[in-house]
């Protein structure tokens, strides 16, 4: 029984193994069939896509080749045109020169005939004689009037006294060289650079204001001495008291007299009268903002900064900064409000205001508006 059971089990195992082998063979066959069935459509798709890519490449190369051919053809045509034009010009240059010569001769002949007809006409000669006689009469009248004016001035006591005063002043200046304007200017510059007392500074600034207003040479000496920096430092130390306001006005007038000369304020320089443009603009804007209720100082400062901005690019560049524009705009808004209120009150008749003060405010407003417009224009040009 044991042997029979063992044989039965071995026979069953062999049958199972045979069945498993048959199943494996069937699975492999199925896999081969599936892979082949998938391979055939994939190969067909590959060949189709490859053919499409080849067609696209062919079309693209054809288009690119046509474009290059057209560009090459246009370049060749241009070169040929330039070469033919040059050859034609060389061949026809002699003819062109001859034509221009003939035309010039014809123009000269026409001009000569016109001049001959004009000079030969009696009307032209009469007009020329009348013009010369008129000029001669004007010269004679001027000489005669000059002689008569000198004779009248010689008899006038007032003019005689003025002449005597001028002669006496010239004699005093000749005897005392320290009374001459140049020497007084140099002495005032020394005092301004070294003085400690307010009275000395006041006298020196009065002398400098007079000399810079009357003499361009004194203005040049002021710039050469570097006194503008000292003057700006002094301006920073001034307060709102009456003596300081007078000195501040004198200092601003000195700067105005110096900067009115164009050769001392070049358009592209950043140094103005020996002082930096940034420092000068900063101090002037401080004065405009802090002394807007003091017309004697405010108007001079506004006019000075507006004039410098219109003539000097360094000052205009500093005025383009947002801080300066903000401060100037604030002052302009306040001035416009004040002038509007005063104009309304004066028109209604509640209170009589000084019209000259109102005119000064309006003039300052116009100058500030011009300054802001110039700055906006410069900023717009700089952005482009």
UniProtKB/TrEMBL annotation:
| Gene Ontology BP annotations | establishment of meiotic spindle localization; mitotic cell cycle; spindle organization
Note the InterPro entries from the entry: ASPM
Q: Which organism is it from?
A: Octactis speculum
Phylogenetic placement of the source organism = Eukaryota, Sar, Stramenopiles, Ochrophyta, Dictyochophyceae
- A GO term, aspect molecular function: calmodulin binding
Which PANTHER family does this UniProt record tie to the protein? ASSEMBLY FACTOR FOR SPINDLE MICROTUBULES (PTHR22706:SF1)
Q: What is this protein called?
A: Uncharacterized protein
The alphabetized UniProt keywords are: Calmodulin-binding, Cytoplasm
Gene Ontology CC terms: cytoplasm; spindle pole
* Compartments it resides in: Cytoplasm
């Amino acid at each position: 029984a044991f042997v029979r059971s063992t044989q039965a089990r071995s026979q069953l195992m062999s049958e199972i193994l045979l069945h498993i082998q048959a199943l494996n063979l069937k699975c492999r066959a199925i896999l081969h069939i599936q892979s082949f069935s998938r391979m055939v459509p994939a190969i067909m798709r590959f060949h189709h896509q490859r053919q499409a890519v080849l067609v696209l490449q062919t079309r693209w190369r054809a288009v690119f080749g046509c474009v290059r051919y057209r560009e090459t053809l246009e370049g060749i045509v241009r070169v040929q045109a330039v070469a033919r034009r040059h050859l034609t010009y060389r061949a026809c240059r002699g003819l062109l020169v001859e034509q221009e010569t003939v035309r010039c001769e014809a123009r000269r002949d026409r001009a000569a005939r016109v001049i001959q007809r004009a000079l030969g006409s009696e009307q032209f000669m009469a007009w020329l004689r009348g013009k010369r006689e008129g000029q001669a009469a004007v010269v004679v009248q001027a000489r005669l009037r000059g002689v008569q004016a000198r004779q009248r001035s010689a008899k006038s006591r007032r003019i005689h006294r003025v002449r005597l005063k001028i002669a006496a002043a010239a004699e005093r200046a000749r005897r005392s060289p320290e009374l001459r304007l140049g020497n007084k200017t140099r002495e005032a510059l020394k005092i301004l650079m070294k003085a400690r007392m307010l009275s000395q500074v006041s006298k020196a600034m009065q002398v400098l204001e007079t000399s810079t207003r009357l003499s361009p040479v004194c203005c040049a000496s002021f710039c050469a001495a570097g006194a503008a920096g000292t003057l700006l430092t002094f301006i920073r130390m001034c307060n709102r008291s009456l003596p300081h306001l007078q000195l501040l006005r004198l200092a601003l007038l000195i700067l105005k007299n110096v900067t009115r000369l164009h050769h001392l304020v070049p358009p592209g320089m950043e140094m103005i009268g020996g002082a930096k443009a940034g420092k000068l603009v900063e101090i002037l804007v401080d004065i405009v903002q802090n002394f807007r209720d003091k017309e004697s100082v405010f108007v001079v400062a506004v006019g000075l900064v507006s004039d410098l901005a219109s003539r000097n690019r360094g000052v205009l560049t500093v005025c383009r900064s947002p801080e300066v524009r903000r401060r100037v705009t604030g002052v302009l808004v306040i001035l416009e409000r004040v002038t509007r209120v005063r104009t309304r009150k004066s028109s209604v008749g509640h209170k009589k205001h000084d019209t000259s003060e109102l005119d000064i405010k309006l003039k300052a407003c116009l100058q500030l508006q011009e300054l802001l417009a110039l700055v906006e224009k410069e900023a717009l040009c700089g952005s482009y």
